[in-house]
């Protein structure tokens, strides 16, 4: 891919020219394709003067934090630090059931934690004789740019966790957005050229508030355990069935209702998992995915057998609109 090859070289030169010989750069990564591609470009341009931060908010998927450490840190060689803030996030989410409140708490806490860490990195840089932090990296894509200019609908809140204006002002940072002229398919092509694995390049999108908005009602450590485990099995079976790339986004949602079941000769009274899978090109409209019945059957029996606290599985057959993709 000639165009993308020349994009890489040009972009690396452009970043070097902007950052200069001494400055340092900080950026949050999530394990998703956008922030990873941006981070790899930055690493190629300025090496360890780029400091990547992964905030563990306690509502990432099963093993996800370890996986990001392995992929970005060990395999891609990015100077990465992981901040375990799960107790802070889960503490603030305690007793909260309103979806918008959950989003706000997670968004604001993310900024606080990231800001504190950025100040720490800045001090360390200065003390070690490296240049201070002067820039903030963001993996903003072209559609995000357009959306934030022209659209003040629900998406304005969707992107609210990206609002790091205070951080920029407080530390006098300038923004670097190497992907701001690219579409998603171009970022994926770029990712492949940069040596990022297919698994990461083709990963389904995952929302900033994580599984907290897929646990309806209160987010407790035990609800997190159930939602994580069910989602893990669901995605594993989708991959085994060779359907992952056909589906645009899939996840398990944990419903805060109990229903009666029977296990052996015992009556059970446990929670419900709702499975969601959609096909879409732009995520503004979406159709529910038509699974082969045999795949749903396997997923259902595995989740009920393996995840303690679940005795019923339902499949979400709603399109967007009028439903949204997420449940909260
Ligand atoms: P909805 O549920 O609005 O979702 O149909 C459309 C797409 O946006 C994702 N989404 C989010 N992404 N932070 C994000 O980064 C959020 O708060 C958020 N809410 C929804 C959703 O997963 C889907 O891909």
Automatic annotation (TrEMBL):
It catalyses: XMP + L-glutamine + ATP + H2O = GMP + L-glutamate + AMP + diphosphate + 2 H(+). Residues 2-203 form the GMPS ATP-PPase domain. Keywords: ATP-binding, Glutamine amidotransferase, GMP biosynthesis, Ligase, Nucleotide-binding, Purine biosynthesis. GO terms for molecular function: ATP binding; GMP synthase activity. ATP binds at residues 30-36. It is an enzyme of class 6 (ligase). The keyword Iron does not apply. One of its GO terms (cellular component) is cytosol. Coiled coil: none annotated. Its EC number is 6.3.5.2. Pathway: Purine metabolism; GMP biosynthesis; GMP from XMP (L-Gln route): step 1/1. Catalyzes the conversion of xanthine monophosphate (XMP) to GMP in the presence of glutamine and ATP through an adenyl-XMP intermediate. This is GMP synthase [glutamine-hydrolyzing]. The chain holds residues 221 to 548 of 548 of the full protein.
């Amino acid at each position: 891919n000639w165009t993308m090859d020349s994009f890489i070289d040009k972009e690396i030169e452009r970043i070097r020219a902007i950052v200069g010989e001494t400055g340092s750069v900080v950026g949050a990564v999530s394990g998703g394709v956008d922030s990873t591609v941006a981070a790899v470009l930055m690493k190629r341009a300025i090496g360890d003067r780029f400091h990547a931060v992964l905030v563990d908010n306690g509502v990432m998927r099963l093993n996800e934090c370890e996986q990001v450490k392995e992929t970005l840190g060990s395999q891609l060689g990015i100077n990465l630090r992981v901040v375990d803030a799960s107790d802070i996030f889960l503490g603030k989410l305690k007793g909260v059931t309103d979806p918008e409140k959950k989003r706000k708490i997670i968004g604001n806490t993310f900024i606080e934690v990231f800001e504190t860490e950025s100040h720490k990195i800045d001090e360390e840089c200065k003390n070690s004789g490296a240049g201070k932090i002067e820039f903030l990296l963001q993996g903003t894509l072209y559609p995000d740019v357009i959306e934030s200019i022209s659209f003040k609908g629900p998406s304005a809140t969707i992107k609210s966790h990206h609002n790091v204006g205070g951080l920029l002002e407080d530390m006098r940072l300038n923004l670097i957005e190497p992907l701001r002229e690219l579409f998603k398919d171009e970022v994926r092509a770029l990712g492949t050229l940069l040596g990022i694995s297919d698994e990461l390049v083709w990963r389904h999108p995952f929302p900033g508030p994580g599984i907290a908005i897929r646990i309806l009602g209160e987010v407790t450590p035990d609800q997190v355990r159930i939602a994580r485990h069910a989602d893990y099995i669901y995605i594993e079976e989708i991959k085994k069935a060779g359907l992952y790339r056909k589906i645009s986004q899939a996840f398990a949602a944990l419903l805060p209702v109990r229903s009666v079941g029977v296990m052996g000769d015992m009556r059970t009274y446990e929670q419900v998992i709702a499975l969601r899978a959609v096909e879409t090109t732009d995520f503004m409209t979406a159709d529910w995915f038509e699974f082969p019945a045999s795949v749903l059957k396997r997923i259902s029996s595995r989740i009920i057998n393996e995840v303690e606290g679940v005795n019923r599985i339902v499949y979400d057959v709603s399109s967007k609109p009028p439903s949204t993709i997420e449940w909260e």
